[in-house]
Every structure is written in C-alpha cells, then in structure tokens.
Amino acid sequence: MDIHIKPINTFAHAEMDALYTMIFHFYEEYDPTHVITKESINDTIIHLTNHPESGSIQFVYDAENALVGYVILIKYWSNEYQGYLLFIDELYIVPDKRSLGYGRTCITLIEKTFHDIQALALEVSPKNTRAQAFYLQLGFLPNKNKTFIKIKY
Q1: In angstroms, rounded to a whole number, what is the distance separating the alpha carbons of residues 83 and 69?
Q2: DSSP character at residue 12
Q3: Which residues form the N-acetyltransferase domain (predicted)?
Q4: Neighbouring residues of 106: CB distance < 8 A, sequence distance ≥ 6
Q5: Which CATH number does the domain housing residue 58 bear?
Q6: What is the pLDDT of residue 85?
Q7: Alpha helices per DSSP H over 2-146
Q8: Which of 120, 123, 48 is nearest to 83 (CA)?
Q9: Splitting the chain (153 residues) into consecutive groups of 10 residues, what average pLDDT does each group show?
Q10: Backbone angles phi, psi at 55, to 5 degrees
Q11: Fewer CB within 10 Å, N- or C-terminus of the chain?
C-alpha cells in the first residue's frame, strides 16, 4: 500500500479544518466524555510547531494524495529504553479507510521514517479489543507497568 505522511501545513485551511474534524471524531469514538476544544487542539499545534524536537502532527495521505488520517507523535528520551521513545499520542484513520491496511502501513512508515528512536509506544482503550489485537499483530506488547496520571488544571 502506498501512503505517505507529512507534517501539517497550518496555512492550508481546508486541511486544518479536516484535522479539527478528525480530532473531534477521534475523541467521540475514543471517549465521548472527554471534552476537547478547538483551543486545546490549537495549543497542541502551536507547541509542536514551536518545538519540533518534541514531536509533530502528521497528515496521512493515500496514493492519490487524498487525506485519510492523522497521527500525533511525541518524542522524548527514555532512560528505561536507553534512547528516544516515540509515543503515538493519536492515530486516526477515517472510518471508510479502516481495515484496508492504512493503519498498519502508517506504523511501518513511522518506523522507517524516524531512525533515531529506540521504541514506539501508544495507549489503547481497555474496551477497544480490536485495536489491542491489531497492535499485538504489529509487535507491540502490553507494558509491564501500569500508567498513572495526575492531571493539574
């Protein structure tokens, strides 16, 4: 499957509108109780644009250059894994392109594109057994540690 990823272009208004729509759909599917706003999305865009060493938002395009999804990648140093860890914060493929190999190819492309990483990591909803099976097929393993988070607002 021929796909490519490239960083978002904040000046491409139609693509940015599509990004907002896809992010809102991602959260509707993932956790409808989680409130995501355009302002919080913009904060992420601004941060990653101003600090590209921290990560990026990439659009996913098919062979005909049609936008089929996005991925938010966060890069950080991990003492445990002795190098850079690339955290796939969000991976979204539009519904009519799912189960066609786009997600699998996107992960493979990320692995080939980001040469300086030691590990890829991601989170999956405990309820999303389909996604869990998919990531296991790709070689991801459940982390032995349980993640906790303390949110400061």
Answers
A1: 28
A2: -
A3: 3-153
A4: 3, 5, 60, 69, 71, 91, 93
A5: 3.40.630.30
A6: 97
A7: 13-30, 38-50, 102-113, 129-137
A8: 120
A9: 90 92 94 91 96 96 96 96 96 95 96 94 91 95 90 81
A10: 150, -165
A11: C
